[in-house]
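F.,

This is the one I mentioned.
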């Protein structure tokens, strides 16, 4: 996996991924940025949410569950001093489907947390990670 990050101007940077997609990042105004794009740590959090949501949907689909939507909201806290690592991350899942069993979704989340989601497993080295789940009938 590769990624190239190039400084654009001010505190704006453009990341080009190995799959040839680009993502703009920018700093807060107090750090010299113009607030035109997400911060790098916001993208790290978003990537973690994407990683685990991807796992949950894939696991449920492989189990032949009729999942039609998956949303995860992440709330994170960071250390007060440098390096300002994530210290707490809470994942709130809302998974929608037809006849979805709570236990099946909980198992998919647990498999993501313990085995498949590289991002949350790495962040779990510095952060306490908690989960909550709402299953919605489609």
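My design for it:
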């Amino acid at each position: 996996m590769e990624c190239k990050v190039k400084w654009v101007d001010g505190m704006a940077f453009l990341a080009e991924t190995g799959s040839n997609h680009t993502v703009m990042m920018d700093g807060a105004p107090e750090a010299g940025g113009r607030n035109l794009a997400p911060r790098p740590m916001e993208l790290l959090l978003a990537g973690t949410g994407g990683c685990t949501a991807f796992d949950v949907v894939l696991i449920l689909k492989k189990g032949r569950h009729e999942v039609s939507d998956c949303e995860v909201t992440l709330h994170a806290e960071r250390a007060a001093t440098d390096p300002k690592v994530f210290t707490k991350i809470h994942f709130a899942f809302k998974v929608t489907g037809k006849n979805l069993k709570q236990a099946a979704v909980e198992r998919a989340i647990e498999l993501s947390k313990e085995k498949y989601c590289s991002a949350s497993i790495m962040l779990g080295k510095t952060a306490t990670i908690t989960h909550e789940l709402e299953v919605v009938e489609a």
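The radius of gyration is 17 Å.

Talk soon.
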